[in-house]
Amino acid sequence: MQTIQWQNVFGSDLKAIKQHRYCTEYHIENHSGTGKLIQYEVLPGIQLTYNLFKLDIRPNNNITNINIIEINHCMEGRYECEFKKNDYIYLNEGDLSISNFSCKKISSNFPLGYFKGISIIIYLDEAVISIKKMKLPDSIDLYKLMKKLCVKGHCFILRARNEIKHIFSQPYPVKEELYRTYHQIKVIELLLFLSSNNISEQNQERPYYSRKQVTITKQIRDHLITHMNKRITIEEMSKKYGIGATTLKSCFKGIYGTTIGNYMHYHRIKTAAFMLQNSYDSIAVIAAKVGYENQSKFAAAFKKITGMCPSEYRKSKHKQPVVHKKVSFI
User: Fold this and answer.
1) Which residue numbers in the chain have pLDDT < 50?
2) Model confidence pLDDT, tens digit, residues 135-186
3) E strand or H helix at 210
4) Structural contact between residues 293 and 249, judged by C-beta atoms closer than 8 angstroms
5) Angle 44-46-48 (CA atoms, 0-180°, nearest 5)?
6) pTM of the predicted protein model
7) Domain ranges of the chain
8) Where does the record place the HTH araC/xylS-type domain (predicted)?
9) CA of 280: how far to CAs of 199, 277, 293, 298, in Å?
10) Are 59 and 10 in contact (CB under 8 A)?
């Protein structure tokens, strides 16, 4: 059976830590964080991988084969792909993407610093034989499916919807010896869904962002985080970095999945929670550091998100403060 050799993708950062007949578990660690991949051989020609990453950058394989289909489902976090035309596209939570390996990726990233999802790789020549042996309905035609969804090397995207959620959910416990059968059922269910007559008409057009737009937007995000003690306006950032305010707002939401205001609001509270647990600073000082001049407004905002006022949160952690610990924004 053909398989993606993850060692060739991640290099020495990847280690196989557990292996069974149809399953291999990998651990990855690099400068940006850690990750875990659990790969199952579902059928000859079809492999399914559970991905759990707490890092920023995912290396890419260099395979260019039009007869390999890649299906990605984003369960948590966000998934960024840069294609050969220097265009970027993003998967939200619940989204599904289908492409073949002729759709060359330049890079892949996780803008929120974490990602949980499922990847299915289908080697058409081998998978077609496997499916025929299962005597399944003729409605599953993998070559026809690729021709319908992978048009002109573009990535086909379905927004989050109940059918996708149902297919990728696991509403009941499955014994380890039944994993392969369970995954076979789920993959066939997905292929039947994708083979429905009108699925190609439901491709959700997502805005593609240029490399320049993405680079500037990420620089602005870093600037806002570095200076979170200040209240900086979108107009100020737009002027400073030479990008239109409307474009900035659209691109930021495309990358990070929320508005600039919401992103910074949650980031401030998240950082304040870390400081409350790991520093001796007073609540007033922490409030100022994360951009709140009014301590009462800070306490109200903190409680709305955490369910506790700052003093209660600090007491609940029962942890000796660490003075010079670096903040990790994951």
Assistant:
1) 321-330
2) 876 778 898 888 888 776 678 888 888 888 888 886 566 777 888 999 999 9
3) strand 209-210
4) no
5) 130
6) 0.79
7) 6-202, 210-257, 269-330
8) 218-316
9) 57, 9, 19, 18
10) yes
